[in-house]
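Batch manifest, entry 17 of 40.
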Amino acid sequence: MKKIGCLAVFLLVDSVVFAQTHENLIKNPSFEQGLGGWKTSFQPGFIEISSDHQTAHEGNASVLFERKGGSRCANISTTARLEAGQTYCLSLYARSLEGANDSVRRDDKIVLRFKGEKPIIPWYPFVTEKKWKRYEYYFIALNDTLTLSVFVYEGKKAWFDNFQLVKAPLPPNAIVRGREVFNYWPRYVSEDRPFEADANAKRMGMLAYLRNPQDVYPCSIPQMSEISHDMDVFSTPGEQEPACFSFYALKDLEKISVELSDLVGIGGKTISKNCMDARFVKCWPQRISHCAHTYSIIPELLEKRPHIDVPRGNSQSVFLTIDVPPESAAGDYVATIRLACAGASSLQMNLRLRVLPFRLEEPKDIFWQLYGADTVDPLSYEKVLLDAKKHGINCVQKGLVRFKPSGFVLDWSDDNKRIVGFHDDLLEKFELARKKVGIKGPLILCESGYSFALAIAEHLKLKLTKSPNPNETAWPGEEMDQPWFKQLYKDALVELKKFMKKIGNEDWYFEGVDEPVAFAFEGRFRLGLYGMILAKEVGLKTHGLCNTYDPSWPYNRLIGSQLDHMVFNRSFGLNHKMNQKCLQVAAECKSQPWFYGSGSYTGQEGGLMPNRWYSGFLFWKTKAKGHGIWIYNFSHGDPFDDFDSSYAEPKDSNLIYPDKEHPGEFISTLQWEGVREGVKDYKYLHTLEGMLRKSKQSRDSKVAARAGEIEAQLNRLISEVPWLEEYYEKDFNNQKAGALRRQMAEWMMELKDKK
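Output type: structure tokens
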């Protein structure tokens, strides 16, 4: 079953086209009368809108959005009269010039607005195909007047045609919450071909096969080339190594359990089965993006269950994690994994583990930073941080939050004119847990969407300035620029510095507000720049996000000049040209380049990829010093219900989930395991690079020459690792990443032997 997508969200696929039996309520739906009946909003010289009579899905015209330059949004809109409470289907055709590998961000979206109601966003983003593609969405009319808007951001060209809005019943797989309707879109291009099992498989009642776990859905059917009972993995001592297989139920299977044997090597060497952990991969519905009213079935949760039922015609994956003890002797080990089932023959998988004869080296001054490790119950801090460390995390962020009693407190003098103290009980607990676990990288302290400036203004009862943008941050008024106010802010930072020293940490960075450059000179940017300037004045180390798709944007340089760590978004790894631009801007700002992009963003859930690539090979390729991973745990309402929130971006975003059956424990995910595998890929690269450097200096000319040959081959392979815009074009999957790691391991053993 082939999967498609972009890194922000998986692409939508053509749905069944129903015969139109009702009047189309969209006037001039195919733009045969130019833009008549549609309102346009665009700024000439940026993105321009026109009727295109050269390109059409059907008829003689379409509407064209064409970027001329700069960074702006354009939209068209029209209105239609509906019957409140009636169900409708909106459909349209769209295509882009760039396709899925767009070289700029693609945030195109459709918005349905009913007066006095929250907007409905069927898809976000979309328009990710070079060919015409049909999109459809079913919904309930919230009142009698609908405004339909199409927004396009920064793409080179995008066309829309043949809008249809007709009465239609909701499809049976629609999820309805109140008046909100969520439409189903499969995450794969096409269904698997039917497969006829042999007599032995039919007797056992199940069939084992190997496929990337992110591509195994309940409806998946194994193909002949995937059928196997043998798994072959390798690891260095002290690392965790995954192994995964799937099985297909040829009849209803009840109470399937996983039984493990010890891993046994030559000469009686043994790795206990207690070092292996078996989990069932659970598929479940999730929104396809932060705000979209569409969902897919995603293989994601790694559940620890004694047994599971699998209906006939369904697939199920089993994910194993082998915790290879540090003292394990090199060599081959074998184990059996038995699937026992009530009323059926058992199925046996054979596992071979090769323990390599060397250890991976930890790179110095390279950091994997985890966001959101502090979003759990404080009693779980130590457990969370230990889990993070096992997944390769060596740098964490802690948010400073104003809400009492859990947030920071600024102590004021008796006359309320000076700040004389700072304390934060949660920060102290978090720091104690971090030190106990042994995460040795720096701690990043972030004001998040709040700021000391707002805390000061709140205490002094100053009037705040509000942005016309309802989603923006307010900021203190004219007093903010007065010397006395700046001094209060600096006093707060000094007290924070004293507090951090008191609890034993002098290796930390002050971040200020989150994503300041995303909002230009509105509140968040003003507070972000303000805090960074004053933090540098009192001698703090600073860390900040430059969340824009043009690293040379003036706002980036304003912030960057005050940063020790200049953190770019995914543009840092977009392509070689953009990467060099980011490195240049960071160098000019005398700042270390970091970037963020992996974690639990939409399109990353339910897969070792793309997180493995982001955290490993792409991280290496960018030459960044740190990589931010967002976010460990960020749920709105019930974390097991992705449709229950009214938050601005209602989708839940998690690398782990709470375990309801075992309070205080967590359920891991495929995307979290992908981060760990990426960190290991980076460590293989780092260790091999060190071996090559030493071998090239060997007095044995043959050893030095061979090291040069390996280095040239490695550089060629790394050059073939895709940049962001090439990711799907090059189909960089888990097998390719694994093959590259295996090749590195072979070279490392060769160099070790020659030494």
